[in-house]
Amino acid sequence: MERNNGVLLSDEEIIALYFDRDEKAITETERKYKSYLLKIAYNVLHSEQDSEECVNDTYLRVWNTIPPNRPKLFRAFLAKITRNLAFDKYENENRKKRIPHGSLLSFDEIRDFIPDSSTPEAELEAKEISKVINAYLKSTSDKNLYIFVSRYFFAMPISSIAERLGCSEATVHKRIKAIKSELRKRFESEGIYI
Amino acid sequence: MKKFLNAVGQIDDELLDRYEKIEKMHLPQKKNRRILKTVAIAACFCIIIGSLIAVLSFGGNTDIPHYSNITSVFESFEGDNPSSRMPNESSNVISEAVSDPEQSETSNTTSQGGNTSQSVESSLPDESSHGDVSGGETSVPIPPSELNHTMSNEPLWLNPVLAGATQGGSGLTEEQAPPYVLFGMGMTAVGKVQQILPDTYARLGASTAELRYRVIVMEITESVYGQNLPNEIFLTVPSYLDVNALLNYDEILFAFKQKGFENYVLANETQKRAEAFSMMFETVPGYHEFCFVPFTDGVLDISLWRENGWKNYFYEEKYLIEFFDDRDNFLVMSGDTLEQAKKNVLNYLSDMYHTPLDRVLYSEIFAYDEAKEVLAHCKPFENGIYSQEAYVQNGSAIFFERYIYGFATNEMIRISEKDGDVTYYSEAFTEEEIKKLPNIADFFENTDIDSLSPMHTDITDKLTVSKAMIAGKYIKYGGKIYSVARIGWKIIDDRNWYCNDNTYFLISEDGSATLIDREELRELTGGDSFVTSFEYNVFQEEVETLE
Q1: Chain-chain contact of B7 with A127 (C-beta, under 8 angstroms)
Q2: What are the start-end ranges of the H helices in B473-534?
Q3: Contact at CB, A133 and B61, closer than 8 angstroms
Q4: pLDDT tens digits, residue range B97-132?
Q5: Measured at the alpha carbon of residue B229, what is the angle toward residues B225 and B232, in degrees to the nearest 5?
Q6: Å from B125 to nearest chain A CA?
């Protein structure tokens, strides 16, 4: 049984457990972040069981990553691992046609961000694309950041984003269009094509 | 698309942090106070009982055992003295389980010589097959009052750099040497395997990522480090290790840490039931396969790590030779005698550690009046038991978690070792209330589950429905106890997409059951996490397009 003593360990304490190779690290991570991570995975996978598996995979990934990594923001660190595992899983499942098309994001939706190019030399690694995205997000408004991360990091439905922001879906769509436009310009100026 | 998604997946942590802050700013505006209050209470309960619920949580994967479905029978415990409550048999098996996720059959309960007797599911093994699991002939119950250990729960083995490679049974490649470990500090003894219990166990609430265990009864012939150790202990060993290999040795220097005191409850995955053990110990997390150092004719025998399948791989001979040829790698090395090894251990411990480390001392905890009251309160009762667990992290503590008829409850008590502080994490179940509670197992026994259908999913011809699990829990909230039975479903459509659904029943004192809506039940139970918060009907979810 897990220790539901009501006292959640701090992130630093949990990370220390990982460094100590103490399996309670996983238990404490699960206790503190399971529901949060499940939500992230579920947004992508739309399956309770797959989400559970994804979150369990997250724990193992974290176990194998810390040490040597010592994340500054543990919650974000976990979120990223879960989110990326979920997308990987989504892709695998989608290949097997087990997940409805459109439950995540459409290819067209993504393509709008990045100009088409058939030149292979123009392809950059995801890290370089990420640099552009990071730079943009750092400079953009809170609302744009919220919309972008909600939609493309956490794969939240437009309706949910609108609800949380207290605006209409049309407004969110407009914002996304503006974000796309801005990002597209930045990608072009950096010579990023896909 | 993948490249873009990968790129988004690498956005800075600081941006995610900023995102969270923005979300916190916006969310409260969308929620009314009542909902917030409910959520807060739910969150509180989740914290308190999260893992217990995980036992009962709906995984939907029929390949993954769940032991939420536990019914039980309890010995009648007499007397207030803890030691008198720990006779060999009475601390034995406390429950039997209900559900095989596939068969989803029902079960009854039986007593083991106690005065609570109910029917027994015919498919379950009889009690004699497991009756001596804890405190049987091979075990020596240790009265808590006699425990006056100097027991450390710190790992005995150091050098964590490669320790991760030893987890989970992953094989070693030629480039990977065996993990280099050292004796650290903690309990160490010489002994031999007395008995290996046939079943596989898990912590209650274990996730699929967590270890499964075998339980061995280890005879302690000599205590190397740790005072007043019992002559025999129950010891969990990860199931990926072949515990039978340990039978080949009559002298084993082994390291271990305390897991639980009396009535430590594990889930028996093989037989789908809960079992209580007195004085449960475990091998040191992260270093399990190096917790046993066997000796043959008084000399170190490295064959355990060779080809006998101790792990699911064996170390290549060259690594073994190198590894045991250097005392820097391990406190024992080839050619060492047992006597030499014991000296090494003691020298190492005294050199390395000069101050007491975290440990749980039963006698110290219960030196405090308030804690004594808990002990008196938490005695086993007619139809239930408290599972006790030692826990060391940021201060030692002991926990009591109540089970009734083998089903989890949301009642938990924590006692801090440092100051004896007692924290109650839910409303206490009173004796009167417990007596009136229906046995959830009876509901499963008397209900034709096959005739039921998922509550939240419209079942069409294209969907195949199968039962994934059955589970139960007693939840006390707002002064009332809710006896909840839960049936989990896995629903697959003709495209092989699937989702999970749950059906809930509230069982009244007279045993009658009422179907109840998930949301209503969540409201009643203060958002107890046993009642899932997932949405259903993914098949009918509209495909969302942005443009």
Answers
A1: yes
A2: 518-524
A3: no
A4: 222 322 322 232 222 222 222 222 222 222 222 222
A5: 120
A6: 25
Q: Cβ contacts (< 8 Å) between A4 and chain B: which residues?
A: 47-52, 412, 425
Structure tokens at B226: 């740790």
Each as own residue / partner, the long-range contacts of residues B212-216 (CB below 8 Å, 24 or more positions apart, any chain) are B212/B238, B212/B239, B212/B240, B212/B269, B213/B237, B213/B238, B213/B239, B213/B266, B213/B282, B214/B238, B214/B239, B214/B241, B214/B243, B215/B133, B215/B266, B215/B277, B216/B243, B216/B246
pLDDT of residue B333: 87
CATH code for residues A107-189: 1.10.10.10
Q: Pick from B416, B329, B429, B417: which is nearest to B377 by CA? A: B429
CATH code 1.10.10.10 region(s) in chain A: 107-189
Please name the residues in contact with A183: beta carbons below 8 A apart, sequence gap of 6 or more.
Answer: A113, A114, A132, A133, A136
CB pair distance less than 8 Å for B15 and A138: yes
> How far apart are alpha carbons B26 and B281 in whole angstroms?
48
In angstroms, how far is CA A33 from the centroid of its own chain? 15
Distance between A172 CA and the closest CA of chain B, angstroms = 10
Provide, as residue numbers in chain B, all residues whose Cβ is less than 8 Å from the Cβ of A163.
Answer: 30
Q: What is the pLDDT of residues B384-420, one digit of tens each?
A: 777 777 665 445 667 787 878 767 788 888 887 667 7
Domain boundaries, chain B: 144-352, 362-428
Question: Would you call A67 an interface residue with chain B, using a CB distance cutoff of 8 Å?
Answer: yes
Q: How many CB atoms lie within 10 A of CB B337?
A: 14
Q: Do A129 and B4 touch (CB under 8 A)?
A: yes
Region(s) of chain A under CATH 1.10.1740:
11-95
Nearby residues of A104 by Cβ (< 8 Å), 6 or more positions away: A44, A87, A90, A94, A155
Q: What are phi and psi of A171, to 5 degrees?
A: -65, -40
| Closest among B440, B502, B438, B489 to B106, alpha carbons compared | B440
Q: How far is it, in rounded angstroms, from Cα B288 to Cα B179? A: 11
Fold of A11-95: Rna Polymerase Sigma Factor; Chain: A (1.10.1740)
- Maximum Cα interatomic distance, chain A, rounded to a whole number of Å: 58
> Cβ–Cβ of B16/A153 closer than 8 Å?
yes
Is this prediction's ipTM beyond 0.85? Answer: no
Interface of B with A in 258-297 (CB under 8 A): 265, 285-287
